[in-house]
Specification:
single chain; 278 residues; mainly alpha; 10 helices; 2 strands; globular; disordered N terminus
Length: 278
């Protein structure tokens, strides 16, 4: 009974305390059950541990969160603008039917990502970065990006694969970021679905023997986009060598396919900077 009174007193001071400790609604019943088993002498120790867990971990600094969100927003501007320009070309670029529907759907997703990130930034008291001017030829590297379907899909694959690795590379910085971390991971998984589908579209049209996943650091495109795939060949995770682990017949190719690697901010900026007009 005394334990319950203590908990109720804490709640009056901080009504959100139980949410910090546990996301389950039944948390108070669990605490009461534990309290019934504790002696009065043990309660201060238990509560100290409880409050340490509730308040001991702080989220990322506001400035860091805004920087990461604007970083993500810039990437989403790039992708949304790319698909918008492609859709404007109509069937002169993307064949009608399923291909056009897929590109339109992916473009709509990217537009939704832009709108969400802008709203999240403003809702958190920040200022969204302005949309850059893009050069989707990357300074002439892909001169036929909007006239050649194969080139368009190759660039689309690179953008999507880079986006997946970009979100993964910075997700850890949003640990304890609550809803913002959840939203970033939600976008990350959709970008992965886009990447897999674009790869399937390339293979279906004979534009390369590509798979939905990445083997080693193979892009299926060539050296011009290699920076987006370097580092994917790793076969060691958390210090554990995956090749033939546990006596299983796991090749280096399969080990690299089974795990995707993140990209650092500097790596991503180096990859996308040629597509930003000066």
């Amino acid at each position: 009974m005394q334990f319950n009174n203590i908990i109720r007193g804490i709640q009056q001071v901080d009504p959100e305390m139980t949410e910090r400790v546990s996301t389950r609604r039944k948390v108070m019943k669990e605490f009461a059950g534990i309290g019934a088993k504790l002696s009065l002498a043990a309660m201060p120790i238990f509560l100290g541990s409880l409050l340490k867990k509730a308040y001991g971990q702080s989220g990322p600094a506001q400035g860091a969160v805004m920087e990461i969100l604007n970083y993500a927003l810039t990437l989403e501007y790039l992708e949304a603008g790319f698909y918008e320009a492609a859709i404007a070309k109509g069937t002169a670029l993307v064949p009608a039917g399923a291909p056009a529907m897929a590109i339109k759907t992916i473009g709509d997703h990217e537009t939704a990502h832009v709108a969400f990130l802008r709203t999240a930034i403003m809702g958190s008291g920040g200022t969204p970065v302005n949309k850059p001017n893009f050069d989707f030829t990357a300074g002439g590297t892909f001169p036929d990006v909007f006239t050649n379907y194969g080139t368009f899909l190759a660039v689309a694959q690179t953008f999507e694969d880079t986006g997946v690795r970009a979100y993964k590379g910075r997700a850890a910085e949003l640990v304890n970021g609550g809803d913002l971390l959840t939203a970033a991971l939600n976008i990350h998984s959709v970008e992965a679905r886009h990447a897999a589908h674009i790869r399937q579209m390339r293979k279906a049209n004979g534009f390369g023997d590509v798979k939905p996943w990445i083997t080693g650091k193979e892009s299926g495109i060539g050296a011009v986009v290699q920076a987006s795939y370097d580092g994917e060949e790793l076969t060691t995770q958390a210090g554990v060598n995956i090749v033939n682990i546990g006596g299983q017949n796991i090749s280096a190719a399969a080990a690299s396919e089974a795990f995707d690697e993140g990209l650092t901010k500097d790596q991503v900026l180096a990859i996308v900077s040629p597509f930003i007009a000066q």
